[in-house]
Amino acid sequence: MPGENLTRDEARERARLLTVDGYDVALDLRSAVGPHTGDGPRTFRSTTTIRFRCAEPGASTFADLLAPSVSSVTLNGRELNVDKVFDGTRIALDGLAAENTLTVDARCAYSRTGEGMHHFVDPEDGETYLYTQYEPADARRVFANFEQPDLKAPFTFTVTAPAGWTVLSNGAREGEPEPVGDGAAVWRFATTKPIATYITTVVAGPYHHVTDVYRRALPGGGELVIPLGALCRKGLARHFDAEDVFTVTKQGLDFFHDHFDYPYPFGKYDQAFVPEYNLGAMENPGCVTFREEFVFRGKVTDASYESRANVILHEMAHMWFGDLVTMEWWDDLWLKESFADFMGTFSMVEATRFADGWTTFANRRKAWAYRADQLPSTHPITADIRDLEDAKLNFDGITYAKGASVLKQLVAYVGRDAFLEGARRYFKRHEWGNTRLADLLAVLEETSGRDMGEWAGAWLQTPGVNTLTPHATYGASGRITELAITQEAPEEHPVLRPHRVAVGLYRREGADGALVRYARAEVDVTGARTVVEELAGAERPELILVNDEDLTYCKVRFDEVSLDTLRDHLGSVTDPLARALCWSALWNLTRDALLPARDFLDLVLRFGGQESDIGVVQMLHAWARTALVHYVAPERREESGRALAQGALRHLRQAEPGSDHQLAWARFFAGVAHDEHDLQMLDRLLEGSGRIDGLEIDQELRWTLLEPLAAHGVADEARLAAELARDDTASGKRHQVRCLAARPSPEVKARAWADVVDSDRLSNALVEATISGFDQPGQRELLAPYARRYFEVIERVWAERSIEIGMAIVRGLYPALQDDRTVLELADAWLEAHRDAPPALRRLVLEARDDTARALRAQRCDAAAGR
Questions:
Q1: Which of 80, 221, 497, 631 supports an S-S bond with 73, CB 3.0-4.6 Å?
Q2: 181: three-class secondary structure by DSSP
Q3: Per-residue buried b or exposed e for 184-218, using 16+ beta carbons within 10 Å of the residue's own CB
Q4: What single DSSP character describes residue 289?
Q5: Per-residue pLDDT reduced to its tens digit, 365-419
């Protein structure tokens, strides 16, 4: 749609002209309930008044609005011709005065895609739930505005809705809701401090609402009091452990107050767990929104609680990094996301029960970063964001996890105290304003005394990941005569960076042969080769671990002796973080086609059962499935799949009854169930005749066990309908839709394809569920006809659907399961023929094509092994 994709140049010009003094936004949400009449989308009334100044009176600009219709536009008391000034995405504003008042009365559409004002009807009780989600630029789907992060302003929201609802916004509610007749009421909210449009929010519906209070004594006397709220749908109330949410919230507020020396600036702190959410969470100040899957319907491992705590603290860090101080444009998205990702783990480790969070970070978050940084779309942490479509795709592993990894290294580089003092000065100097990279570097130079330009140039402004490899030589005595670390960079991004690393030497000790560290040195790796002088003369190690303690961001390689040691004794590495780093390095070797996939699977089966950290275990399971599906040579896939399923069942039976490990192995076994015997075992577990001591088959686990049965044609439509009747909830419906699409039938696949590609009737959550079910590893031949069809439809899909749904379809339906060069040739032909396609769409295809090429390289490596 013309004008929908705002460019950086347009935003800069508008920011040069305008200063926004405030918004008054009135939303009438009574239309959310009851039957929808009419042919168009269900809509609500949105009335917005914007007060703003113009630096050049007489100039022209535009306001943003995505709405089915506009009733009136009034500029400085003058009513404009709607047909002339509104094109469906923008409102043209000509002849501006020095001081202006714009009022727009519009009908905006409720969303089924998770963008704008999302509308959800709970199938369990028929209740309607609303919430907003805007980042990077969907506030314009709810009210007229200037949709860019550097035009911050105070907001005053007024909401009319059914009287029995809970209604929240960023500001505190002012007074009690005022009845207006017909069972409705008006909520008025306090005016916010200046904030960006994308972090404003409204949450409305009959939510289950739990409250608490955070209290903190102030240094000069008095008390800081922050009202806390936690919300979820009524149907999830019986599962909602709000006490744990509040515990982590209070621990986080204590941590950030202790270290930031800037009191939480937004008054109250509500956290709403909402349905059909596209993201993990969103940092709306005063009213954070989360995906409701963080309300656990069944038993989950401690890794899930850790993940939730991390997300809670990540969003809390945004109250300072992103909300109080906001990046000027999406180029500097890292100024909020990298910091929040780093501070989420930093605060979690130091302030909560999840003291091993850096192990999860090293194993899980960095894996995301390493993958993203090796794609053809890799980019510097400070990226070149030309427009909103670019911005949407840059919420990626580089902006989040690589950026957080680099900040972890920065703390080691400038020192913890200098880093935190820099943050404190940054908040106070730029409160309620917008910043660029230079603003942060300036305070860090002040507090550390270091020149930050060279560091920023190497780490923030260049893409790619370096590889560090140890090389040791030994004397006649067996001691190290020289230990050197070589650094390599990919040919397309040949930057050798400075790395502060720890190098650990390990050997087996004691009767149990535990692999323990007996020597360590920290060194600054620079250039192509660095000698670790401190370790000269050390006894011969069995394992040399570069980047021990995970101080830097790099890929690690092993010398041959170390790799042989890990093949035989990986489970004997006593330190959990060191063991996680070894696993991560082995996975990178597998992805890079340097370690046969079957060797990695063998390591998982031999040592995965000994792994103590449940987060690492679950990451190993995910990697093992990827290796089996994509990296094992096709002719060996049957044998490897059988071995993996047998090993998973063995570890399931051996796991401690009732433990997190038992649950994790049960889920993994279901995911790799391979033959009739495996499927019969799943069936017996579902029916209760195949009990495993301590394993509770709750409703969530029942759906996990049912999906492979559906995918292998054992569970038919009637059985899935019966299961939905047992779990007639929104979550149950999503599970059923996924299982229905998983069935091995041409008719089923055709229906699923049509539901996603040719229709927009499904909500975002059901699109996701259908795609997940459609794409089954055991159905390669059944899915083969859709490879060519994919490339025929994606340009149309991108043009017709919202960017969120477009991304889901283009990523999710890419024919990654086809194991030959045909898909590469189809992708190459499409890219060649569509050079003028939207850059964001081309990026998605390029990334998927690169994954296919990587998989084929790994398969060749696996096929060559043992010949």
A1: 80
A2: strand
A3: bbbbbbbebbbbbbbbbbbbbbbbbbbebebebee
A4: E
A5: 999 999 999 999 999 999 889 998 888 888 899 999 999 999 998 888 888 999 9
Q: Three-state DSSP class for 420?
A: helix
**Which DSSP state fits 154?**
-
Contacts of 367 (CB under 8 A, 6+ apart): 584, 587, 619, 623
CA dihedral angle for residue 57, residue 62, residue 65, residue 70, rounded to 10 degrees: 70
Q: For the chain, how many helices (H) and strands (E)?
A: 29, 28
At residue 1 the predicted structure's pLDDT band, cuts being 50, 70 and 90, is: very low
Residues composing the chain: 867
Residue ranges in 192-331 assigned as alpha helix (H):
242-260, 302-318
Cβ atoms of 34 and 66 within 8 Å: the answer is no
CB distance 159 to 335 below 8 Å: no
Query: What are the catalytic residues?
Result: 315
Per-residue pLDDT of 565-615, as tens digits, reads 999 999 999 999 999 999 999 999 999 999 999 999 999 999 999 999 999
Give the single-character DSSP code of 193.
P
722-774: per-residue pLDDT in tens?
A: 999 999 999 999 999 999 999 999 999 999 999 999 999 999 999 999 999 99
Question: For 82-93, what is each residue's pLDDT tens digit?
Answer: 999 999 999 999
Burial of 726 (0-12, 13-18, 19+ CB in 10 A): exposed
Tokens 């009334």 label which residue? 45
Cα 127 off chain centre by: 29
% pLDDT > 90, the chain: 93
- Three-state DSSP at 674 gives coil
Residue 241 token pair: 């452990």
Dmax (CA) of the chain: 94
Q: Is 492 exposed, middle or buried (0-12, 13-18, 19+ CB in 10 A)?
A: exposed
- Measured from the Cβ of residue 740, the count of other Cβ atoms closer than 10 Å reads 21
End-to-end CA distance of the chain: 56
CB 465 within 8 A of CB 374: yes
CA 365 vs CA 26, 357, 552, 730: distances in Å: 40, 11, 13, 29
- Span 285-335, pLDDT tens digits: 999 999 999 999 999 999 999 999 999 999 999 999 999 999 999 999 999
Confidence of residue 866 (pLDDT cuts 50, 70, 90): low
| Residue 702 vs residues 26, 73, 159, 355, 743: alpha-carbon distances, Å | 45, 54, 41, 32, 17
**Surface-to-core class of residue 456, CB atoms within 10 Å of its CB (0-12 exposed, 13-18 middle, 19+ buried):** buried
> Per residue in 821-865, pLDDT tens?
899 999 999 999 999 999 999 999 999 999 999 999 999 999 998
